[in-house]
Amino acid sequence: MTRRHRPADETREHVLEITDRLFYNNGIHATGIDQVAREAEVAPTTLYRLFGSKDGLVAAYVENADQRTRAWFERATEDAESGTDAIRAIFDALGDNTREDDFRGCACQLAFAEYPDPDALAHQLSATAKQWVVDRFTLHLASADAPADRKRAAAESLALLVEGTLASAGTLGPDGPARQARPLADLVLDSLER
To answer: DNA binding happens at which residues (predicted)?
Structure first.
């Protein structure tokens, strides 16, 4: 195998692209460092130099997935005129996102399932990613004319809908229960106005 010389930051990004595909499609524990190195066309020692360990590579994978989700949220809401418009846009985009051919569910959910130990860095990073979603909905609901506890409950309900949609679409497809996400989000938002 002929290896291409790249700068370290470019090599790191290339390895993460390969890792994203392998970990997402095959599972983290089912994918060894040697397979990642082979498909990325780098030496295993390069992976250890860049990430320290497989746990370091997994952490980078989860962080990368989290950053993509955050960027996705921003793109979905960039034209929204209000917080509730932003939330509706998120659920519209979520419906489109779950229709991708290779959709298996949320990468952070999948990592969380493979790392149930709360002390595992992948577990902690996945939990942080999920908390960010709750916080983002809380931010979008900040200007709603409702008591703070109801807004918080609504944000948590919306986050739960996202989680359920991602899990359901990954297992039962986008035309199963996941198709109810937007109408349910509308019900949550409408309940704040009562």
So the answer is: 32-51
